[in-house]
# Entry
Amino acid sequence: MPGTARLLPPIRVLIIDNDKQSVSIFEELASHWGYTPVIAEGEGIHLLADAKVKAREHRCQLALVDMRLVDDSDESDISGLDLIAQIKPASSIVVSGYGSAQVAVQSIHEKGAVDFVGKEEDPLSIKAKLQKEALKISAKERRLKISPTNVLDMIAATLFEPALPAEYHDQIADVFAQLFPEAHRLRLEKMNNILATDEVSTAPRPRSVVLKVYEDDLQPVIVKLARRHKVEKEVSRFLEYIDRRLVGNFIPVLGKHVELWDIGGIKLSYVGNIEQTFARFFQAQSVDKIQACLEKFFTYTWSAHYKKIKKKSNISLFDLYCDVWGEDWYERAQNFQSPDPEKAMGKNLWGRIRAADPVEWLIKNTGKDKKSDVSRVGTAYLAVTHGDLHADNLLVDDSQNAWVIDFERTGMGHALQDFIEIEFDIISRVACANENFPSFYRLCVAIAGSSRTGEIITDDPQLADAETQKILKTISIIRLLAEQCTHIEDSRQYLFGLFFNSIFRATIINAETHKRSQQRTLMLASILCHRLEHWDEPWPPDEWRDLP
# Structure
């Protein structure tokens, strides 16, 4: 398969100089050397402003920057040097007629330029410096071979807005080139998600792509690509909450990260052979092996965070989840038009259970009036949580150890959140994709009935099939671990978290192919809010007991 470098457009070089003759010369040279010149126009501050606009508009990879852009006669004018940080991630080479060793040092070490060249030098010096930097940042210049190319197309469709011109999709290959500076070829492999087309996750998740990447003949590493600001945030969270803060060796090591104009990438290495996601692991393995895997993760790997749990008084669980997810999930719920519940459960079944519309219940009882927020509890516990612990963010190695990835949401939150999220993902996505509604209804009733977090869920004789029994046993394991790690016994807190997750997932689903998933999730949310509202009454209600 041909290398992707042959398919990439020429490198874009931004030329910023207040001398028109110099601009003309640099433009001609850049074109002759195979680059696409982009010219900043204007005078004084207008030149500076246009340079920033052009750098962004054309996603420039390199820049030739004159040191004095406002006033050539002013020895204190270093406006070009000050511009360097404002046009990143373009790599800037300072070209000046006022060169000195001191200016060169200032350009590189203080202002962030990658090199310095005097205008009096031979043009070949400029060419050499451009080529040197291009080899570091450009897949095209490196002739880096990346395969299969259809994965690059998938990444572009996932991460870029449709309006972005295709020529700027070369950022994807350049991210790989910078993450793997010594590579000659890369082979990309998608992680084996449970549903390759699934568009939703347990928590508000940015659009991202997670891959196994094989560099030359080396063992694979994990690479996550996402929008630039998401990568910056994730790196910050990783360094603050994960790096050297977990127990044992079952944690990816942050190898390198890159942020370009629209997207960025994170390279994570690990010890051991990552075989599959937890979603696949759950489907293939016995309950005993699932239990051993989860126990090791929660009671060992993540245990340091549970030892630092913080107690908070008179706090809203709704507010805790808003703090982690942001307010947009609730705003989305407020604008959500609930589908006809009879389509989910059938006219007779829905009419007999008389459950509330869960979205209306959320707005009325938690978000509308802080004083009457029914999720407010006397005591809650906070800990560092992963924040998006769905079953594709847990990777399982060949020794059945769980490794967590994707740390953008990591931070202080409801101590039960991670347990709730992995449970919810199993219920709603991993195990129940083809579940019929009456059976799913009985499953929802069963999991809503516990009065204590770690209570073993009683088997329902009507839920005799092996898959549902596996789900119930796994949920019991997760909740027992939740109580053991957090010491939170009040299952209402757990069910509130499950309810919030249900609303989030149901309101984010738009694709017609996911409508059945949306209906099931709204059914779960309805049953949960009924349970929470009638907490001190027998469960299930008498009128529900003989439902099909």
About this structure: Residues 193-206 have pLDDT under 50 and may be disordered.
